[in-house]
Design brief:
With about 475 residues, this protein is an alpha/beta fold. It has 21 helices and eight strands. It has an eight-stranded mixed β-sheet, with helices on both faces. It is globular. InterPro entries: B_mannosylTrfase_Bre-3/Egh, Glyco_trans_2-like. Pfam families: Glyco_trans_2_3 (PF13632).
Length: about 475
Protein backbone atom coordinates (compact mmCIF):
# COMPACT_ATOMS: atom_id res chain seq x y z
CA UNK A 1 0.00 0.00 0.00
CA UNK A 2 1.18 3.51 -0.68
CA UNK A 3 2.60 5.68 2.07
CA UNK A 4 1.49 9.04 0.66
CA UNK A 5 -1.88 10.63 0.07
CA UNK A 6 -2.58 11.24 -3.62
CA UNK A 7 -5.43 12.73 -5.60
CA UNK A 8 -8.06 10.92 -7.64
CA UNK A 9 -6.35 11.12 -11.04
CA UNK A 10 -3.10 9.30 -10.25
CA UNK A 11 -2.17 5.70 -11.13
CA UNK A 12 -2.33 4.96 -7.41
CA UNK A 13 -5.98 5.97 -7.16
CA UNK A 14 -6.80 3.98 -10.28
CA UNK A 15 -5.18 0.98 -8.62
CA UNK A 16 -7.36 1.59 -5.56
CA UNK A 17 -10.49 1.57 -7.72
CA UNK A 18 -9.44 -1.65 -9.42
CA UNK A 19 -8.58 -3.18 -6.04
CA UNK A 20 -12.00 -2.37 -4.61
CA UNK A 21 -13.75 -3.76 -7.71
CA UNK A 22 -11.91 -7.07 -7.90
CA UNK A 23 -12.10 -7.77 -4.16
CA UNK A 24 -15.86 -7.11 -4.19
CA UNK A 25 -16.42 -9.74 -6.88
CA UNK A 26 -14.10 -12.37 -5.42
CA UNK A 27 -15.38 -15.65 -4.00
CA UNK A 28 -13.57 -18.88 -3.01
CA UNK A 29 -13.09 -21.44 -5.75
CA UNK A 30 -14.59 -24.94 -5.64
CA UNK A 31 -12.42 -26.68 -8.25
CA UNK A 32 -9.11 -26.17 -6.36
CA UNK A 33 -10.59 -28.33 -3.60
CA UNK A 34 -12.73 -30.73 -5.60
CA UNK A 35 -10.07 -31.81 -8.10
CA UNK A 36 -7.40 -32.73 -5.49
CA UNK A 37 -10.07 -34.45 -3.39
CA UNK A 38 -11.15 -36.71 -6.27
CA UNK A 39 -7.57 -37.53 -7.24
CA UNK A 40 -6.60 -38.29 -3.65
CA UNK A 41 -9.63 -40.53 -3.15
CA UNK A 42 -8.84 -42.48 -6.32
CA UNK A 43 -5.19 -42.85 -5.38
CA UNK A 44 -5.98 -43.74 -1.77
CA UNK A 45 -8.48 -46.46 -2.69
CA UNK A 46 -6.13 -47.85 -5.36
CA UNK A 47 -3.10 -47.98 -3.04
CA UNK A 48 -4.93 -49.19 0.08
CA UNK A 49 -3.52 -52.31 1.69
CA UNK A 50 -5.20 -53.69 4.83
CA UNK A 51 -3.10 -53.26 7.94
CA UNK A 52 -3.53 -53.25 11.71
CA UNK A 53 0.05 -52.39 12.60
CA UNK A 54 1.02 -49.77 15.17
CA UNK A 55 2.03 -47.44 12.32
CA UNK A 56 -1.42 -47.72 10.73
CA UNK A 57 -3.18 -47.02 14.02
CA UNK A 58 -1.01 -43.97 14.71
CA UNK A 59 -1.54 -42.57 11.20
CA UNK A 60 -5.27 -43.23 11.39
CA UNK A 61 -5.44 -40.96 14.42
CA UNK A 62 -2.97 -38.16 13.58
CA UNK A 63 -3.89 -37.79 9.88
CA UNK A 64 -7.61 -37.75 10.78
CA UNK A 65 -7.24 -35.21 13.59
CA UNK A 66 -7.59 -32.10 11.37
CA UNK A 67 -11.04 -33.18 10.13
CA UNK A 68 -13.01 -31.03 12.59
CA UNK A 69 -11.18 -27.88 11.56
CA UNK A 70 -11.41 -28.81 7.88
CA UNK A 71 -15.18 -29.25 7.97
CA UNK A 72 -15.64 -25.90 9.71
CA UNK A 73 -13.25 -24.27 7.24
CA UNK A 74 -15.21 -25.60 4.28
CA UNK A 75 -18.37 -24.28 5.87
CA UNK A 76 -16.80 -20.83 6.06
CA UNK A 77 -15.84 -20.89 2.37
CA UNK A 78 -19.37 -21.91 1.39
CA UNK A 79 -20.80 -19.09 3.51
CA UNK A 80 -18.72 -16.58 1.58
CA UNK A 81 -19.99 -17.95 -1.72
CA UNK A 82 -23.49 -17.19 -0.42
CA UNK A 83 -22.53 -13.85 1.11
CA UNK A 84 -25.13 -11.79 -0.80
CA UNK A 85 -27.56 -11.83 2.05
CA UNK A 86 -30.70 -9.85 2.71
CA UNK A 87 -28.92 -7.77 5.35
CA UNK A 88 -26.18 -6.80 2.85
CA UNK A 89 -28.74 -5.71 0.23
CA UNK A 90 -30.55 -3.63 2.85
CA UNK A 91 -27.32 -1.90 3.91
CA UNK A 92 -25.45 -0.56 0.87
CA UNK A 93 -22.00 0.96 1.52
CA UNK A 94 -22.32 4.47 2.92
CA UNK A 95 -20.29 6.63 5.32
CA UNK A 96 -20.75 5.78 9.00
CA UNK A 97 -21.96 9.22 10.04
CA UNK A 98 -23.44 8.29 13.41
CA UNK A 99 -20.45 6.44 14.87
CA UNK A 100 -16.91 7.32 15.92
CA UNK A 101 -13.96 5.16 14.84
CA UNK A 102 -10.63 4.88 16.64
CA UNK A 103 -7.94 3.10 14.63
CA UNK A 104 -5.57 1.80 17.31
CA UNK A 105 -2.08 0.73 16.25
CA UNK A 106 0.29 -0.58 18.96
CA UNK A 107 4.00 -0.60 18.11
CA UNK A 108 7.17 -1.51 19.94
CA UNK A 109 8.68 1.57 18.33
CA UNK A 110 11.97 0.12 17.11
CA UNK A 111 13.84 1.54 14.13
CA UNK A 112 13.39 -1.72 12.20
CA UNK A 113 9.62 -1.61 12.67
CA UNK A 114 9.09 2.11 11.97
CA UNK A 115 9.00 2.01 8.11
CA UNK A 116 6.13 -0.47 8.16
CA UNK A 117 4.38 1.58 10.85
CA UNK A 118 4.58 4.71 8.70
CA UNK A 119 3.19 2.86 5.68
CA UNK A 120 0.29 1.55 7.75
CA UNK A 121 -0.61 4.78 9.55
CA UNK A 122 -0.62 6.82 6.34
CA UNK A 123 -2.96 4.28 4.75
CA UNK A 124 -5.43 4.86 7.62
CA UNK A 125 -5.54 8.62 7.12
CA UNK A 126 -5.78 8.16 3.36
CA UNK A 127 -8.64 5.66 3.16
CA UNK A 128 -10.68 5.74 6.36
CA UNK A 129 -11.88 9.40 6.54
CA UNK A 130 -13.95 9.07 3.35
CA UNK A 131 -16.15 6.50 5.12
CA UNK A 132 -15.71 7.72 8.71
CA UNK A 133 -16.21 11.47 9.05
CA UNK A 134 -15.66 11.14 12.79
CA UNK A 135 -12.48 9.23 13.56
CA UNK A 136 -8.99 9.30 15.02
CA UNK A 137 -5.79 7.30 14.62
CA UNK A 138 -4.02 6.40 17.88
CA UNK A 139 -0.42 5.20 17.75
CA UNK A 140 0.20 3.26 20.95
CA UNK A 141 3.83 3.01 21.97
CA UNK A 142 6.20 2.70 24.92
CA UNK A 143 7.88 5.50 26.82
CA UNK A 144 11.47 5.89 25.64
CA UNK A 145 11.12 3.71 22.52
CA UNK A 146 13.86 3.92 19.86
CA UNK A 147 11.78 5.56 17.14
CA UNK A 148 9.94 8.02 19.40
CA UNK A 149 11.13 11.08 17.45
CA UNK A 150 10.06 9.57 14.12
CA UNK A 151 6.67 8.61 15.55
CA UNK A 152 6.13 12.13 16.90
CA UNK A 153 6.97 13.61 13.49
CA UNK A 154 4.51 11.22 11.86
CA UNK A 155 1.78 12.33 14.28
CA UNK A 156 2.54 15.98 13.56
CA UNK A 157 2.06 15.35 9.83
CA UNK A 158 -1.71 14.84 10.09
CA UNK A 159 -4.36 16.23 12.47
CA UNK A 160 -6.11 12.82 12.82
CA UNK A 161 -3.05 11.15 14.35
CA UNK A 162 -2.14 11.23 18.01
CA UNK A 163 0.44 9.32 20.04
CA UNK A 164 -0.44 7.47 23.26
CA UNK A 165 2.66 6.70 25.30
CA UNK A 166 2.50 3.92 27.87
CA UNK A 167 4.57 4.90 30.95
CA UNK A 168 7.39 2.54 31.84
CA UNK A 169 6.05 2.13 35.36
CA UNK A 170 2.50 1.27 34.27
CA UNK A 171 1.38 -2.11 35.64
CA UNK A 172 -2.25 -3.29 35.21
CA UNK A 173 -4.03 -4.77 38.22
CA UNK A 174 -3.51 -8.39 37.09
CA UNK A 175 0.02 -7.77 35.89
CA UNK A 176 -0.54 -8.41 32.19
CA UNK A 177 2.49 -7.66 30.00
CA UNK A 178 3.55 -7.06 26.42
CA UNK A 179 0.99 -5.94 23.83
CA UNK A 180 -1.95 -6.71 26.14
CA UNK A 181 -0.50 -4.27 28.68
CA UNK A 182 -0.40 -1.50 26.07
CA UNK A 183 -3.93 -2.30 24.87
CA UNK A 184 -5.19 -2.23 28.45
CA UNK A 185 -3.61 1.18 29.01
CA UNK A 186 -5.38 2.55 25.92
CA UNK A 187 -8.63 0.95 27.08
CA UNK A 188 -8.34 2.63 30.50
CA UNK A 189 -7.55 5.95 28.81
CA UNK A 190 -10.73 5.70 26.68
CA UNK A 191 -12.75 5.10 29.83
CA UNK A 192 -11.15 8.11 31.52
CA UNK A 193 -11.82 10.29 28.45
CA UNK A 194 -15.46 9.21 28.24
CA UNK A 195 -15.08 7.28 24.98
CA UNK A 196 -16.14 3.82 26.21
CA UNK A 197 -19.49 4.23 24.47
CA UNK A 198 -21.77 2.08 22.37
CA UNK A 199 -21.32 4.18 19.23
CA UNK A 200 -17.52 4.29 19.51
CA UNK A 201 -15.71 1.50 17.65
CA UNK A 202 -12.05 0.52 18.11
CA UNK A 203 -10.32 -0.85 15.03
CA UNK A 204 -7.34 -2.87 16.25
CA UNK A 205 -4.45 -2.98 13.77
CA UNK A 206 -0.83 -4.13 13.73
CA UNK A 207 2.03 -1.78 12.96
CA UNK A 208 2.81 -3.49 9.64
CA UNK A 209 -0.78 -3.74 8.39
CA UNK A 210 -2.42 -1.08 6.24
CA UNK A 211 -5.91 -0.62 4.85
CA UNK A 212 -7.36 0.10 1.43
CA UNK A 213 -10.60 1.48 -0.05
CA UNK A 214 -12.32 -1.89 0.25
CA UNK A 215 -11.39 -2.08 3.93
CA UNK A 216 -13.01 1.23 4.77
CA UNK A 217 -16.17 0.61 2.71
CA UNK A 218 -16.76 -2.89 4.13
CA UNK A 219 -16.11 -1.74 7.69
CA UNK A 220 -18.55 1.17 7.34
CA UNK A 221 -21.15 -1.19 5.87
CA UNK A 222 -20.81 -3.50 8.88
CA UNK A 223 -21.10 -0.66 11.40
CA UNK A 224 -24.09 0.90 9.63
CA UNK A 225 -25.79 -2.48 9.58
CA UNK A 226 -25.69 -2.58 13.38
CA UNK A 227 -27.75 0.62 13.46
CA UNK A 228 -30.55 -1.22 11.62
CA UNK A 229 -30.26 -4.56 13.44
CA UNK A 230 -32.74 -5.69 16.06
CA UNK A 231 -31.50 -6.01 19.68
CA UNK A 232 -31.36 -9.78 19.21
CA UNK A 233 -29.24 -9.52 16.04
CA UNK A 234 -26.88 -6.64 16.78
CA UNK A 235 -23.15 -7.45 16.75
CA UNK A 236 -20.35 -6.09 18.92
CA UNK A 237 -17.25 -7.49 17.20
CA UNK A 238 -16.15 -8.29 13.65
CA UNK A 239 -13.08 -9.43 11.76
CA UNK A 240 -12.01 -9.10 8.13
CA UNK A 241 -9.33 -10.72 5.96
CA UNK A 242 -5.57 -10.34 6.41
CA UNK A 243 -3.73 -10.36 3.07
CA UNK A 244 -0.12 -9.87 1.97
CA UNK A 245 0.45 -7.81 -1.19
CA UNK A 246 3.46 -8.93 -3.20
CA UNK A 247 4.93 -5.42 -3.03
CA UNK A 248 5.19 -5.58 0.78
CA UNK A 249 7.24 -8.77 0.72
CA UNK A 250 10.99 -8.84 1.28
CA UNK A 251 11.20 -12.60 0.67
CA UNK A 252 9.34 -14.40 -2.11
CA UNK A 253 9.71 -17.65 -0.20
CA UNK A 254 7.97 -16.42 2.97
CA UNK A 255 5.37 -14.59 0.87
CA UNK A 256 4.41 -17.89 -0.74
CA UNK A 257 4.53 -19.68 2.62
CA UNK A 258 2.14 -17.12 4.14
CA UNK A 259 -0.53 -17.92 1.54
CA UNK A 260 -2.11 -20.10 4.22
CA UNK A 261 -3.01 -17.16 6.47
CA UNK A 262 -5.69 -15.34 4.40
CA UNK A 263 -7.18 -18.73 3.62
CA UNK A 264 -7.76 -19.27 7.34
CA UNK A 265 -9.68 -15.99 7.45
CA UNK A 266 -12.06 -17.07 4.68
CA UNK A 267 -12.50 -20.51 6.21
CA UNK A 268 -12.44 -21.10 9.99
CA UNK A 269 -12.72 -17.45 11.02
CA UNK A 270 -15.54 -16.84 8.53
CA UNK A 271 -17.46 -19.82 9.89
CA UNK A 272 -16.97 -19.26 13.62
CA UNK A 273 -16.49 -15.52 14.08
CA UNK A 274 -18.96 -14.86 11.26
CA UNK A 275 -21.64 -16.96 12.92
CA UNK A 276 -21.22 -15.24 16.26
CA UNK A 277 -18.78 -17.41 18.23
CA UNK A 278 -15.04 -16.75 17.65
CA UNK A 279 -13.97 -20.06 19.21
CA UNK A 280 -10.92 -20.30 16.91
CA UNK A 281 -9.70 -16.97 18.24
CA UNK A 282 -9.16 -13.81 16.22
CA UNK A 283 -6.05 -12.06 14.95
CA UNK A 284 -4.92 -8.70 16.20
CA UNK A 285 -5.40 -6.78 12.97
CA UNK A 286 -8.64 -5.73 11.29
CA UNK A 287 -10.49 -6.55 14.50
CA UNK A 288 -13.24 -4.03 15.27
CA UNK A 289 -14.87 -3.95 18.69
CA UNK A 290 -17.33 -1.64 20.41
CA UNK A 291 -15.52 0.52 22.95
CA UNK A 292 -18.28 -0.15 25.49
CA UNK A 293 -17.78 -3.93 25.16
CA UNK A 294 -14.00 -3.65 25.28
CA UNK A 295 -14.40 -1.59 28.44
CA UNK A 296 -16.18 -4.53 30.06
CA UNK A 297 -13.64 -7.16 28.98
CA UNK A 298 -10.36 -5.26 29.02
CA UNK A 299 -6.98 -6.81 28.24
CA UNK A 300 -5.66 -7.53 31.73
CA UNK A 301 -5.50 -11.33 31.43
CA UNK A 302 -2.43 -11.86 33.61
CA UNK A 303 1.36 -11.90 33.20
CA UNK A 304 1.56 -15.20 31.25
CA UNK A 305 -0.73 -14.19 28.38
CA UNK A 306 1.05 -13.65 25.03
CA UNK A 307 -1.87 -14.34 22.67
CA UNK A 308 -4.12 -11.61 23.98
CA UNK A 309 -6.27 -11.56 20.84
CA UNK A 310 -7.23 -15.23 21.14
CA UNK A 311 -7.91 -14.85 24.87
CA UNK A 312 -10.13 -11.84 24.18
CA UNK A 313 -12.05 -13.91 21.61
CA UNK A 314 -12.71 -16.80 24.02
CA UNK A 315 -13.80 -14.37 26.74
CA UNK A 316 -16.13 -12.74 24.20
CA UNK A 317 -17.59 -16.17 23.35
CA UNK A 318 -18.59 -16.65 26.95
CA UNK A 319 -20.00 -13.18 27.63
CA UNK A 320 -21.59 -12.31 24.28
CA UNK A 321 -22.51 -15.53 22.45
CA UNK A 322 -23.72 -14.96 18.90
CA UNK A 323 -22.61 -11.31 18.83
CA UNK A 324 -19.59 -11.42 16.50
CA UNK A 325 -19.51 -11.16 12.71
CA UNK A 326 -17.22 -11.24 9.67
CA UNK A 327 -16.96 -8.66 6.91
CA UNK A 328 -15.55 -8.92 3.41
CA UNK A 329 -12.86 -6.28 3.75
CA UNK A 330 -9.11 -6.77 3.65
CA UNK A 331 -6.13 -5.36 5.43
CA UNK A 332 -2.67 -5.42 3.89
CA UNK A 333 0.32 -6.73 5.82
CA UNK A 334 3.80 -8.07 5.14
CA UNK A 335 5.23 -11.55 5.51
CA UNK A 336 8.30 -12.14 7.73
CA UNK A 337 11.58 -11.10 6.12
CA UNK A 338 13.13 -14.56 6.19
CA UNK A 339 12.51 -18.18 7.17
CA UNK A 340 14.06 -17.73 10.61
CA UNK A 341 11.63 -14.92 11.45
CA UNK A 342 8.79 -17.02 10.01
CA UNK A 343 9.56 -19.86 12.45
CA UNK A 344 10.09 -17.40 15.31
CA UNK A 345 6.68 -15.84 14.68
CA UNK A 346 4.93 -19.22 14.65
CA UNK A 347 6.82 -20.29 17.76
CA UNK A 348 5.45 -17.36 19.76
CA UNK A 349 1.91 -18.02 18.57
CA UNK A 350 2.10 -21.72 19.43
CA UNK A 351 3.65 -21.01 22.82
CA UNK A 352 0.81 -18.70 23.74
CA UNK A 353 -1.97 -20.82 22.22
CA UNK A 354 -0.86 -24.00 24.01
CA UNK A 355 -0.90 -22.07 27.28
CA UNK A 356 -4.37 -20.73 26.47
CA UNK A 357 -5.69 -24.20 25.63
CA UNK A 358 -4.44 -25.42 29.02
CA UNK A 359 -5.84 -22.42 30.91
CA UNK A 360 -8.63 -23.67 33.16
CA UNK A 361 -9.82 -20.12 33.73
CA UNK A 362 -11.43 -20.47 30.29
CA UNK A 363 -14.23 -23.09 30.34
CA UNK A 364 -13.48 -26.17 28.24
CA UNK A 365 -16.55 -25.68 26.05
CA UNK A 366 -14.95 -22.49 24.70
CA UNK A 367 -11.45 -23.87 24.13
CA UNK A 368 -11.95 -27.46 22.94
CA UNK A 369 -12.04 -26.58 19.24
CA UNK A 370 -8.99 -24.33 19.52
CA UNK A 371 -7.24 -27.14 21.42
CA UNK A 372 -7.84 -29.59 18.53
CA UNK A 373 -6.48 -27.09 16.02
CA UNK A 374 -3.40 -26.37 18.13
CA UNK A 375 -2.78 -30.10 18.73
CA UNK A 376 -2.88 -30.67 14.97
CA UNK A 377 -0.39 -27.85 14.51
CA UNK A 378 2.20 -28.91 17.10
CA UNK A 379 2.05 -32.52 15.90
CA UNK A 380 2.96 -31.27 12.43
CA UNK A 381 6.56 -32.57 12.37
CA UNK A 382 5.39 -36.05 13.37
CA UNK A 383 2.63 -36.03 10.73
CA UNK A 384 4.88 -34.93 7.88
CA UNK A 385 5.04 -37.44 5.04
CA UNK A 386 8.83 -37.37 5.17
CA UNK A 387 8.86 -38.23 8.89
CA UNK A 388 6.29 -40.99 8.34
CA UNK A 389 8.29 -42.60 5.51
CA UNK A 390 11.49 -42.37 7.54
CA UNK A 391 9.81 -44.02 10.53
CA UNK A 392 8.39 -46.73 8.27
CA UNK A 393 11.82 -47.42 6.80
CA UNK A 394 13.40 -47.64 10.27
CA UNK A 395 10.82 -50.15 11.56
CA UNK A 396 10.61 -51.97 8.22
CA UNK A 397 6.90 -51.19 7.74
CA UNK A 398 6.24 -49.00 4.71
CA UNK A 399 2.47 -49.62 4.68
CA UNK A 400 0.92 -46.20 5.39
CA UNK A 401 -2.69 -47.29 4.88
CA UNK A 402 -5.24 -46.60 7.63
CA UNK A 403 -6.75 -49.41 9.69
CA UNK A 404 -9.95 -49.27 7.64
CA UNK A 405 -10.49 -48.24 4.03
CA UNK A 406 -13.22 -45.71 4.80
CA UNK A 407 -10.64 -43.47 6.50
CA UNK A 408 -9.15 -42.85 3.05
CA UNK A 409 -12.07 -40.46 2.36
CA UNK A 410 -11.27 -38.50 5.50
CA UNK A 411 -7.60 -38.28 4.62
CA UNK A 412 -8.42 -37.11 1.11
CA UNK A 413 -10.66 -34.42 2.59
CA UNK A 414 -7.88 -33.19 4.88
CA UNK A 415 -5.11 -33.17 2.28
CA UNK A 416 -7.29 -31.58 -0.40
CA UNK A 417 -8.19 -28.84 2.05
CA UNK A 418 -4.52 -28.07 2.68
CA UNK A 419 -3.94 -27.73 -1.07
CA UNK A 420 -7.02 -25.50 -1.34
CA UNK A 421 -5.84 -23.18 1.46
CA UNK A 422 -2.50 -22.46 -0.23
CA UNK A 423 -4.09 -22.14 -3.67
CA UNK A 424 -6.84 -19.74 -2.56
CA UNK A 425 -4.60 -17.88 -0.11
CA UNK A 426 -2.12 -17.20 -2.91
CA UNK A 427 -5.00 -15.98 -5.05
CA UNK A 428 -6.10 -13.58 -2.32
CA UNK A 429 -2.59 -12.21 -1.85
CA UNK A 430 -2.21 -11.75 -5.59
CA UNK A 431 -5.56 -9.92 -5.78
CA UNK A 432 -4.27 -7.53 -3.11
CA UNK A 433 -1.12 -6.84 -5.14
CA UNK A 434 -0.59 -4.20 -7.83
CA UNK A 435 -0.89 -6.66 -10.71
CA UNK A 436 -4.06 -8.21 -9.29
CA UNK A 437 -3.20 -11.69 -10.52
CA UNK A 438 -0.93 -14.63 -9.89
CA UNK A 439 2.08 -15.23 -12.12
CA UNK A 440 1.65 -18.43 -14.10
CA UNK A 441 4.26 -20.35 -12.12
CA UNK A 442 3.25 -19.25 -8.60
CA UNK A 443 0.33 -21.70 -8.08
CA UNK A 444 2.56 -24.57 -9.23
CA UNK A 445 5.39 -23.58 -6.91
CA UNK A 446 3.17 -22.93 -3.89
CA UNK A 447 1.53 -26.37 -4.17
CA UNK A 448 4.87 -28.10 -4.80
CA UNK A 449 6.39 -26.39 -1.74
CA UNK A 450 3.61 -27.34 0.68
CA UNK A 451 5.81 -30.10 2.23
CA UNK A 452 8.53 -27.49 2.83
CA UNK A 453 6.13 -24.90 4.21
CA UNK A 454 4.57 -27.50 6.51
CA UNK A 455 8.02 -28.22 7.96
CA UNK A 456 8.43 -24.55 8.89
CA UNK A 457 4.89 -24.30 10.28
CA UNK A 458 5.31 -27.52 12.25
CA UNK A 459 8.77 -26.60 13.50
CA UNK A 460 7.52 -23.28 14.87
CA UNK A 461 4.52 -24.97 16.50
CA UNK A 462 6.61 -27.75 18.03
CA UNK A 463 9.24 -25.34 19.39
CA UNK A 464 6.49 -23.28 21.01
CA UNK A 465 5.06 -26.43 22.59
CA UNK A 466 8.48 -27.44 23.95
CA UNK A 467 8.95 -24.02 25.53
CA UNK A 468 5.55 -24.32 27.19
CA UNK A 469 6.37 -27.81 28.53
CA UNK A 470 9.72 -26.58 29.85
CA UNK A 471 7.89 -23.68 31.50
CA UNK A 472 10.22 -21.11 30.05
CA UNK A 473 9.45 -17.48 30.74
CA UNK A 474 6.92 -16.09 28.30
CA UNK A 475 8.38 -13.65 25.79
CA UNK A 476 6.56 -11.47 23.29
CA UNK A 477 9.01 -11.66 20.38
CA UNK A 478 8.55 -8.92 17.77
CA UNK A 479 10.21 -9.62 14.45
CA UNK A 480 11.52 -6.92 12.11
CA UNK A 481 8.77 -5.41 9.96
CA UNK A 482 9.40 -4.89 6.20
CA UNK A 483 8.61 -1.43 4.87
Amino acid sequence: MASTVVDGGTPHSRHNAKLAKRTASWKPGILPFLLPFVLLVVFGLWSYRPSSSLMSWILTVVWSLPAAGVLIGLQGALLIRRRVRKSDRMTPPAPAEQDFLIALCPTIGRHDTYPALERSILSYVEHLPEWFPYMRVDILTEEGCEAAADIDRLADSHPLIRVITVPKDYVPANGTRFKARANHYAHELRIAEGEALEYVWVLHMDDDTGVGPDTAASLAQFINRQRRATPEEVKHMAQGILTYPRENAVSLFTWLADAVRPADDIARFRALTGLGTPAAGVHGELLVLRASIEAEIGWDFGPKEIVEDARLALTFCRRYPGRSDWFNGRCYGASPANAADFVKQRERWAWGLVALCCNRAVPLRYRWFLSICVATWILGPLQHIGAVLLAGWLINDMNTSPVTQSVVLLWALNFAYVIWTYWEGLRLNALASLSGRRRWWEPIVVVACIPVFSVLEGLGGFKGFVKFVRREENKFVVIAKPA
